[in-house]
Amino acid sequence: MNRFEVVTPRDLPNAVKLLSGRNHAALAGGVDLLDLLKQNIVAPQSLVNLKGVGAMDAIETDESGGVRIGALVKLSEVAANPTLRERYGAVAEAAAQAATPQVRNLATVGGNLLQRPRCWYFRHPDVNCLKKGGDRCYAPGGLNRYHAILGGGPSFIVHPSNLAPALVAFAASVKLIGPGGERTLELERFFTLPRIDPTRENVLDTGEVLIEVMIPAPAPGAASAYLEAREKQSFDWPLVSVAAIVVSDDTHLIRDARVVMGAVAPIPWRSHEAETALRGARLDSSAAARAAEVALKPAAPLSDNGYKVPIAKALVRRAVLRAGGIETA
Ligand SMILES: Cc1cc2nc3c(=O)[nH]c(=O)nc-3n(C[C@H](O)[C@H](O)[C@H](O)COP(=O)(O)OP(=O)(O)OC[C@H]3O[C@@H](n4cnc5c(N)ncnc54)[C@H](O)[C@@H]3O)c2cc1C
Ligand code: SF4
Q1: Are residues 282 and 195 part of one domain?
Q2: What is the pTM of this model?
Q3: Which domain holds residue 286?
Q4: Residue 174: beta bridge partners?
Q5: CA–CA separation, 99 vs 55, rounded Å?
Q6: pLDDT in tens, 154-191
Q7: What is the CATH number of the domain that holds 240?
């Protein structure tokens, strides 16, 4: 780890100014950033402490009935917030299932969305793979049991964030501020595939700060579910996660649906195929199973991660049923 100083700007414009200079990194909870420093993946001369700017730490309902979550809100606060639990259940549940209580009390929403991938080649200080500017990806011919089964190539990372699939399912947007001013982007468009640029996971520009996440009001009749499978009960990232939203009536006729998988692709993977299969169908176990089949049809596993396919199918099926109010074994 290199030597660095921690700078606490007095407000957001000053934070942006500092971050626009060379070799600075934004510090939120520090859970991932400290690992990145120790693994020599980043070597900033200063860490710009966002917690000192005195903003971005609230969950508020806006005038259109949606919710704004400040980038510095902690995962434990998301998990416990009554509005999120009631109206955006998948988001609260995704936060509740992430990591450990200690990590959730430190980790922020912005940091969770911007954490770097867990690929062990990327995290190894002596490996210079494609993501670090090297000339090859070691996953296809190497150890790839935790890697992508969808959307991979030329890097095969999976996006590690629990919150990302749940927020994409709810059509969330992110507000960013940078040297050029503010911009708002759909979260779905914020994440970017390695085929565009294997060194990055999103389109955050140098000097930009993620200020908040905005989630629109859910459609009347919408209900959601978030499920994940892990190797361990806690202290671990998911092998597969699924966030589903089902908009249905009393007869279980599905008017709309969103299905987004996590930990299977370099970005939160929205299955338009599953959504199309569900729309207009009556929700029951065969409709959910059909959605799961089509969601995983494009899967292209590597040598050691084919096991993710049946897990993902089971989770899609169960998440869709649970969102529609039908419990499964
Ligand atoms: C044991 C363990 C288990 C875990 N399990 C899970 C899990 O199951 N699911 C899951 O989702 N996560 C898991 N995590 C990861 C954890 O949730 C993230 O590391 C954490 O959310 C990062 O948030 P942070 O506030 O600490 O970010 P930091 O570490 O401070 O920042 C992360 C990155 O984002 C940048 N950044 C942070 N905030 C902003 C901002 N507002 N604007 C611009 N840039 C910013 C930083 O510069 C840095 O590059 C786990 C971590 C550990 C240690
Ligand atoms: S999957 Fe991505 S991060 Fe991992 S070795 Fe390949 S290029 Fe590097």
Answers
A1: no
A2: 0.98
A3: 222-323
A4: 185, 213
A5: 25
A6: 999 999 999 999 999 999 999 999 999 999 999 999 99
A7: 3.30.390.50
